[in-house]
User: What shape does this take?
Amino acid sequence: MDWRGWAEIVFTIALTVAIGWPLGLFMSRVWAGDRTWLDPVLRPVERLTYAAFGIDSKKGQTWLGYAAALIAFSAAGFVMLYLQLRFQNLLPLNPQGFDGLSPHLAFNTAVSFVTNTNWQSYGGEATMSHLSQMAGLTVQNFVSAGAGLAVAAAIARAFAADRGETLGNFWVDLTRVVLYVLLPLSIVTALALVAAGVPQTLLANVEAATLVGVKQVISLAPTASQEAIKQWGTNGGGIFNVNSAHPFENPSPLTNLIEVVSLNALAFGTVVAFGRVAGARKEARALLAAMVILVGVAAAAIYASETLTPQPALAAAGISNPTANMEGKEVRFGPAASALWAAQTTGASNGSVNSMHGSFMPLGGGMALFMIQLGEILPGGAGSGLYGMVVMALLAVFVAGLMVGRTPEYLGKKVEAREIKFAMLAVLILPLAILGFSAVAAVTPVALEGLLNKGPRGLTEILYAYSSAAGNNGSAYAGLTANAPWWNTTLGIAMLLGRFAYAIPVLAIAGAIAAKPKLAPTAGTLPSDSPLFVGLLIGIILILGGLQFFPALALGPIVEHFQVLAASR
Assistant: This one.
């Protein structure tokens, strides 16, 4: 640990927010349907899309209509992707000659990419054809992220409305976000990655000779295009099994910086867009401040854990004062870059990694796990992080209202029983899915067969898998053999619950909020743009996370931490 590591963490987070700010300003215009500098090229494509699919771009939808469109679109995407993966051996652009996926793996993978989770129970370079990667997984990377951003647009309009009846049009929001935001960002980033050495090819592999003269077959793929949208869309699913720790996905410190910034920039920008559309710019800055503070603290905690915690193996070898725990980390990037990436990817709904979380010290891995369990809101996924944070803000003003005996308000809207009931439905789905499935798996023999480790480490493997699935994150703790019917099926169900059992109550909240009159603040209104509110919001997030998950964490990574300390003496 040194000043350079701290400077790297601070600089990267600051750069991410700085890039996210103008992106948010641009996206607010996209959400509002205003003219942008891309209109001369993309407006004709947009109109053609509406005409081809019979979309009336001027017709709004109620929250029920918006939710039904989200579900119908996602269901259709699941069916199409499932069939493509199941029978990829019958389709073209399969130079590797891969077979179709098993029914349970095809189910898990289709659900994973449709829900913007991108959990991978497979090694991409040994499983997926080029067509599956490009026309299956990459397409869902775009549209699943677009669906999340569409829901965020709906809730922003709800707070801007004055006795409104509709939230906009899901099909219009999805089309505009993909065309005007995700596609241009991905094209520019993919070209930058190609220039920096990331491959983009339809060749199956290339042969190389090692230094000792042995022939080595190296897998290739259209990597740069998927790498770009995997980050901007907070997807995380990589072409290669080790994701951005692979030198083809992430060959240099420059590509590492590009990828880790794009991982969070759009999610931060979504908060800025929300503030512009809802007419609450100062309040949006408060949400942004809470996100930045918590992700910064998490990065610092992981960095400290990986550089200061004694390592039993090194102590046993008689090595004193080791510089850092480098197991499972890229020496090209070091512990600071690994810690920052781990905090940002688990604070977002993004499963990409540039080091293996399972190789972290127990508290470092536990912090990454806790970041997912907080709800994927720091800054969260594309769209989903914003509406998850709004749910937390509603709970914060509700708690403040109970303290002073007043009806709570947020952004000029009264927060009443209906909104809080839906907020609690959304908040409780994560502990239900994570702890419920983990409890069953911990006593089910067929589930325990997939574990590499027993005791606290084995429990952490279980908790991390279901947290990653229900949180729509997609990263893994390693050690767990998940490509089995039990794990693929239950993890797929957890992904569906984490995505839709959260998004539908949020849309119900948006419908209720939109119908309320817009009120001017009074002397009794809690300012939601002040440092006091930021502190209250952070407190609500941590208290909810602690109450829900601390007992389980105490039996997993915390116990393992004390075991490590004892073994290091």
